[in-house]
Each structure stands twice: as C-alpha cells, then as structure tokens.
Amino acid sequence: MLKRLIQFRDLLIIFTWREFIIRYKQSMIGIFWAILQPLSLMLLFTFIFSYILKMEVSGVAYPVFFYAGLLPWTFFSSALNYSIPSLTNHYNLITKIYFPREILPLSGILVAFVDFLIASLFFVLLLFIYKVNISLTGLWVIPLFVMLFVFTIAVSLFLSGLNVYYRDVKLATSFLIQLWFFASPVIYSIDKIDMKLKVFLFLNPLTFIIENMRRVILEGRTVVLWQFLLVSLLIMVFYIAAYRFFIRIERAFADVI
Asked: In this model, does residue 123 exceed pLDDT 90?
C-alpha cells in the first residue's frame, strides 16, 4: 500500500483535507463536534450508571472510565461511517481517472484520526481534573493505537470494496456498528465478566485494544506481551487478506459502480 500511495501522496492529502472541510463547513461549533460525540455519550452513561443502574464499573470516576473507552471506539465507528460509502460516493472519479482506490477510504480514516486527536485533548483535561496519575505504562497507548489504526484500515477496505458490489453493506453498517459496540468493552470492563464469555469477546480485536488502552492509562497496568503479539499477528493477517481482496476486486470498480 505504501508503495502505491507514495506516488499519489498529494492526492491523499487533498482528499483528506477536502473531507475535513466538507464535514465542518458552515458548522457553528466546527471541530468541537469531534469532542461533542464522545462527551455526550460519556455524560449519558455516567447518568445511567450513577442514578439508574447504580453499578460500579471500575475504581476510577465514571466520566474518565467511559471517555477512555469511547475515545478509541468513536475513532473506529467514525472511520467506518466515512470509509464504507466512500467509493460509491465518488463514482464519478472512479469511472473517469485512475488512482489507487484505497485513497478514498483512507481519507475518511485520516479525518477520523484528526477528530481522535482533538477529542484526546479533552481526555487529557479529564485526567487532570480527576487527578489520575499516569505512569510510563501509558506509553503502551501508542502501539495499541497503531493496532487499532491497522485494524480499522483492514475493515474499511474490506467493507468499502464489498459495498461497491452489494449496496446492502452500507445499509447494514449502522446495525453492524451497534452490535460491535456492545461486543466491545466500551462501557464495561472484561475483569467483571465470566471466563467463558471473555474467550468469546476476545475474538473481537477491539476487546483487547480498548480494554488495554484504558488499563495502561487509568490503572497503570502493563499489557500482557503474548496477548499483544497474538492479537497483532491476527490483525496483520486480516489486513493482508483484506488488502489483497480489495486489490483484486478494484479492477472492476469502474464497470460495476
């Protein structure tokens, strides 16, 4: 992918900037929408677990716990919402000129990444407000996010390519994301889950990524190395398979779309 993108890096930058501008054009609060989505969900879950269900989810404050899980999840879900319909939305370009088609879904993922960085600034503020001490284990966030980024690219390429042939994929995206949300430890911790269910949840790479991104920051716990290597291997195998699938079917995009 890098070899293909180097020659068209300017086009990738232009598409990413264009998608970013379109998203926030004529918006009253602009880039603060990137913070509003995880913030509003954080407030909702804090209210539910504080006054309705009255359940203890972790040893840290509710807002910090929920926001730590919503931050990577919002990046993943936003990236899918942007990238899956990207090929069909730009059918006029695909049918007229050649360029690496993966640029279109990647531009949506990069916009979601910018939103992630903006929303992370508010998370830093939350850590300061609730006096959460961050140790060196917090550096694990970097390789964990790299795993999340690669996994997001793999899912986006696979589903966006499939969406060209079967438009049901776009229609099913919202439903898929809702199911994926509850199958990922965004509003709960897997520490409180039965072992048999844990094994099932760990089939979802987001379970390992989100849970450990929260642990290394809020609890100062390190990542289990063999689990990290195993999940990384599975993600790379899936990425290679998804990209090869995308390259194979992209030749017919102009005819099918």
From this structure: yes
Is the model's pLDDT at 184 over the cut of 70? yes
How many separate domains does the chain show?
1
Of residues 181, 71, 66, the one with CA closest to residue 117: 71
Closest Cα to residue 120, out of 84, 67, 167?
67
245: tokens are 């699938």
**What does the alpha-carbon distance between residue 125 and residue 10 come to, in Å, rounded to a whole number?**
34
First to last CA, the chain: 22
pLDDT tier at 142, thresholds 50, 70, 90: very high
Q: Domain of residue 211: give its range.
A: 2-256
pLDDT score at 210: 96
- Categorize the per-residue pLDDT at 28 as very low, low, confident or very high, splitting at 50, 70 and 90: low
pTM: predicted TM-score of the whole model, two decimal places: 0.92
Closest CA to 155 of 198, 88, 103, 106: 106
| Helix extents (H) in the chain | 2-7, 9-24, 33-47, 62-83, 86-89, 91-94, 103-129, 141-165, 168-182, 195-201, 205-214, 225-250, 253-256
Query: CA 191 to CA 197: how far, in whole Å?
Result: 11
Q: Could you give the CA distance from residue 250 to residue 246 in angstroms, rounded to a whole number?
A: 6
